[in-house]
Amino acid sequence: MHTSPVALVTGASRGIGRGIALELARAGHSVLINYAGNAAAAEECRALCRQAAPAQSSASFETVQADLSKEADRQRLVETTLCRFGKIDLLVNNAGVAPDRRADLLEATEESFDRLIAINLKGPFFLTQRVARHWLKAAETWPARGARPKIVTISSISAYTASVNRGDYCVSKAALAMLTPLFAARLAEVGVRVYEIRPGIIATDMTGPVKERYDKLIVSGLTPIRRWGAPEDVGRAVVALANEAFPFSTGEVINVDGGFHLRTL
Ligand code: NAP
Questions:
Q1: Got the DSSP string for 105-135?
Q2: Residue 33 and residue 21 in contact, taking contact as beta carbons nearer than 8 Å
Q3: How far apart are CA 244 and CA 90, in angstroms?
Q4: pLDDT at 265
């Protein structure tokens, strides 16, 4: 059995997922880097994790291609993680996609809706179910005291913010927000704690196409903290949750958004 804590991070090849993988590596975790199709980016993330890991750390890093919208891929992802590391201490549901084309609500297509729901909602729901089933069985062998596994799901400010040019994305994230209370309630009996991180505007490939527009909005005060978020900002929040910093909290939402969610007058 692996001695360092083991994290399974979905969509870790690029962007926020990569930032999470790097911060976990820096904190001494082994990381399973999942990706959909960009093997080169996943390998690059693995090399960066190796560099980031503490010198004396026993942590190791693996990449696994798996499309989370597909049941067979989710099964292979969990089985491979358990085969390579022997356990999962942290599941980070990060992978997600934006619509290929931003379209007004009245022009939105079923095709885009189905794609976003399959990747952003169905994928994490059933991946979490699969990992939860494993934990419920494994719990019989856990020592009476000690750290318990955790789940962190990366949703979005779009879970509660209406953007009429990407309604499909908003509804996928609003529904995803229910995952955390559901699994927090179901898994509390075995000590598994479940959290949601709600990122704001983070500089990644996903926000590349709207960079100029968001630059202007940020400068004019859209977020009280007037800067873009970085993947590292989200990664550091995940490490805080993973490192037993909140032992009597579950089902919590952590906003990593520069204060976007604040109402001001
Ligand atoms: P990104 O830069 O586009 O990266 C997306 C990641 O997800 C990549 O690793 C990609 O793998 C993976 N992925 C895509 N489809 C997948 C699938 N079907 N199965 C498995 N992996 C898949 O996106 P990001 O900005 O980092 O976003 C990460 C998460 O944060 C998403 O859930 C997003 O909705 C959320 N979020 C982002 C922002 C933001 O401002 N960027 C704000 C709030 C929330 P490949 O490299 O192989 O394509």
A1: GGG--HHHHHHHIIIIIIHHHHHHHHHHHHH
A2: yes
A3: 11
A4: 87
**The total number of residues written for the chain in this structure:** 265
Q: For residue 1, what pLDDT is reported?
A: 58
Mean pLDDT in runs of 10 for the chain (265 residues)? 90 98 98 98 98 95 98 98 98 98 95 98 99 97 94 98 97 98 98 98 97 97 97 98 94 98 93
11 CA to middle of ligand 1, Å? 6
CA dihedral sign of residues 25, 28, 29, 30: positive
Could you tell me if the CB of 206 is within 6 A of ligand 1? yes
pTM, entire model: 0.98
CATH number at residue 66: 3.40.50.720
Which domain, by its residues, includes 13? Answer: 6-256
Separation CA 264–CA 35 (nearest Å): 39
Ligand 1 atom, smallest distance to 73 CA: 19
214 is catalytic: no
Pairing of the two strands 61-65 and 6-9: unpaired
Confirm whether 146 is domain-assigned.
Answer: yes
Ligand 1 neighbour 92 (Cβ under 6 A) = no
Ligand 1 pocket check for 258: Cβ under 6 Å: no
CB of residue 74 inside a 6 A radius of ligand 1: no
Q: How many domains does the chain have?
A: 1
Whether 265 maps to a domain, the answer reads: no
Has residue 26 been placed in a domain? yes
